[in-house]
Amino acid sequence: MTKISNMPAGWSRRSILKGGTALAAAGLAGLPMMGRAFGQDSTLSFWQFYAPDGDVKPQVEWFVKMVADWNATQAEQVALEYVVGSEYIGGTKLQTSFASGQGPDIFIISPGDFLRYYNGGVLADLTPAIEEAARADFPESVIANRMVDGKIYGVPMEVEPMAFYYSVKAFEDAGLNENDVPQTWDQLLEVGKKLTTTERYGLLFETNPGYYQNFTWYPFMWQGGGEFQTADGKSAFDSPATVQALKLWQDAVNSGAAPRQMLGGGGGDIVANLGSGYCAIQNVGIWGISAMDNNAPDVPYGIFKLPVPAGGKYVTVGGGWAFVANSKGKNPEAAGKFIAWALASMAPDSIQRVVDWCTVAKSDMPPRNSALAAGGEAFNKGKMGIFSKEIHPGTRAEPRVPPEVYKIISDAIQQTQLGGADPQAAATAASQQLDAFLASYSGAPIL
Amino acid sequence: MTEILTSVAGEKPAAVRLTTRRREAIAGYLFILPDALGLLVFIGLPMVLAFGISFFEVDGFGSFKFVGVANYVRMWGDPLFWTTLKTTLVFAVMLVPLLYVTGLGLALLVQRTNRFNTVMRAMFFAPQMVSLVVISLVWQLMVVDKLGVLTRLAAAVGLGSISFLGNPNIALFTVTIAGVWFLMGYYMLIFLGGLQDIPKEYYEAAKIDGASPIASFWYITLPLLRPTSFFVLLISSVAAIAGAQAFDLVYVMTRGGPANSTTLLVTYIYAQAFQYSAFGYAAAMAALLVVLMMVTTVFFFLATRGGRFDNE
């Protein structure tokens, strides 16, 4: 009988099984070696979303130089590990690394995530590595939300206040000029409507749910005197100030002046929205300056501070990321020393490093008084000058809240802004949820 | 039957000889062993572990605290859980029939083998070759407020200014349509396979008897496609409930918004685990999701008497 087989010549079922078994055995034999290879590495890993594979050259260079300078003089070596921004901020890599006990030795977090990691017990106390003079160099408004019980658990690398950017061309097309820049919420809505065309929105607030949307909404709540919690830890969300802030964003969308959906990376992406002409005014942070200058240099734009409600007081929110060390890492003490050396030492190179980050690598306000002084003119000229003189003085630190609080506030914003819910009803419902949560919360103070 | 040659006293034990049938069976098991091991290690074991975790409060930083059925009780009182469960069921109810109709419709359109249909088949299947993230971004651009191609088209035909992804009342439908567009080529291929199994003689006989094309479809094609339909409905239902592909679409296109209107159970589970560090609660919801999928599967098998159509 003719043997019919679809196997290649020379192959048999037995040979495939043998080969497969050999491969599996080789793979299993190699596992212990892989484990040893990982176990023996004493280099401190530093996870962030800038370098060495980031796409903004000055930022890559800043990180690479910092680590190279440290490694040149210290026994404990540091290695940069780049994680794509979207994965780092909204993905699973950082969280799963900690869940599996393989978290990075050094990493960066925003205030929005501080309590999650602090309450998880993985943030190392950096206080012993930071000299008192350097500690005093950080304004209270900047360092407070990285501290618990007087100890420092994170060193901020930047302060990023929020403001409004506007397209000069859109203003001119609508017959407006810089004297028409809105100073009150009513004017903001009115100008937004004037700037709206069939091809362009007049005004843009973040619409995607997330930590960033909450971050951008807080100052509107604060401007009317609102807070999400009282001094004694109860909900303060059900207040006229909160309701009017929710209503402002709702009115902007309902009037047709603000979109429900954004382009590119969302409300923080100024190039994709204001730069492309999708909107005429956009609520963005200080990073918008370098983004526009680098990626939309031909688009003339202006900046103005957040308008205030009737009877309100100017305040904006300042975000920014901080270096933190893993308390369960390979060498938390060395990691703490590295962070202090990099950003929180009184040595001139440490101060200059902060200046360079905020003026060369990015366009940010410095988190240290000495850096603000050392940066001198760099912080006072052009668009940066508007931030340092007009916008930054009213900056309040981004709140640090546990995820449950974030979600309650986020739902209230989303339901009113896009879901059409009554602002008062949404504030009341959120306040009840907040009270229920705060009554049982036992982690570090919510600020 | 196994044939064993017993050793004769004083002689070396003879080798155990297996029948050809038994050897075939052992070889078969050895061939599926790697896949079975993979399923066990990467699917079975995590499922068992996740079920175990659902009885603990797990913060994702090494802390485990036994809480009994507290995570399941929490589900009962979590309004967002019920909202996402409802959204998931609505998504499944929209997605499954749409996939069935479009998959079968496309298969009928391109079932004849010629050069044009070959090109069309490749085009309909092409979305499967592209990352779902890219597809989500493209769809996002097509429906963006004011400027999207579909948004302009809607305005041009008098539907006004529609926010396809920004309006909570239609965002889920938009995501569903994007999902159908992505998946319909795959189901088209499955239906093509089913159509090719139907003997041509049946159609010829029906034609001679004067049956119209609609009658042929109704009395020949549909009944004989029952095994394929069973497979398509089962797989697409489980996929819709599990939210496998939908997760990518939602994550990129809407992030669960606006106002939670596109938050599926699977995206809520993801958020609880990786954004809120509530791994135990996420595991409890995942366990319920598995039960939902099992119930769906059992329903399909019961409704079709075990999914067997060969004796009809």
Largest sheet of chain B: 2 strands, antiparallel
Q: What is the chains' assembly state? A: heterodimer
Poorly predicted ranges of chain B: 1-8
Rg over alpha carbons of chain A: 25 Å
Order of helices and strands of chain B: HEEHHHHHHHHHHHH
CATH class of chain B: Mainly Alpha
Helix content of chain A: 40-55%
Question: What can you tell me about this protein's structure?
Answer:
The complex is a heterodimer of chains A (about 450) and B (about 300). With about 450 residues, chain A is an alpha/beta fold. Chain A has helices at about 15-40, 55-75, 85-90, 95-100, 110-120, 130-135, 140-145, 170-175, 185-195, 210-225, 240-255, 270-275, 290-295, 330-345, 350-360, 370-375, 380-390, 405-415, 425-440, and strands at about 45-50, 80, 105-110, 145-150, 150, 155, 160-165, 200-205, 280-285, 300-305, 315-320, 320-325, 395. Chain A folds into two domains: about 45-160 and about 320-385, Periplasmic binding protein-like II (D-Maltodextrin-Binding Protein, domain 2, 3-Layer(aba) Sandwich); about 160-320 and about 400-440, Periplasmic binding protein-like II (D-Maltodextrin-Binding Protein, domain 2, 3-Layer(aba) Sandwich), CATH 3.40.190. In chain A, the strands form three sheets. In chain A, strands 7, 8, 9, 10, 11 and 13 form a six-stranded mixed sheet that branches. A five-stranded mixed sheet of chain A has the order 2-1-3-12-6. Chain A is globular. Chain B is about 70% helix and about 0% strand. The radius of gyration of chain B is 26 Å and the shape is globular. The interface between A and B is large, with 45 and 39 residues.
Set out the fold topology.
The complex is a heterodimer of chains A (447) and B (312).
Chain A: H1 13-40, E1 44-48, H2 57-73, E2 78-82, H3 85-90, H4 93-99, E3 106-109, H5 111-119, H6 132-137, H7 140-143, E4 147-148, E5 151-152, E6 155-156, E7 160-167, H8 168-173, H9 185-195, E8 201-204, H10 211-223, H11 240-254, H12 270-275, E9 279-285, H13 288-295, E10 301-304, E11 316-319, E12 322-325, H14 332-343, H15 348-361, H16 369-375, H17 382-391, E13 395-397, H18 403-417, H19 423-440
Parallel strand pairs in A: 1-2, 1-3, 8-9, 11-13
Antiparallel strand pairs in A: 3-12, 4-5, 6-12, 7-9, 7-10, 7-11
Chain B: H1 20-53, E1 56-58, E2 64-66, H2 70-76, H3 79-109, H4 115-125, H5 132-142, H6 149-156, H7 171-196, H8 200-208, H9 213-224, H10 226-242, H11 244-253, H12 265-275, H13 279-303
Antiparallel strand pairs in B: 1-2
Helix pairs in contact in B: 1-13, 2-13, 3-7, 3-10, 4-7, 5-11, 7-10, 7-11, 10-13, 12-13
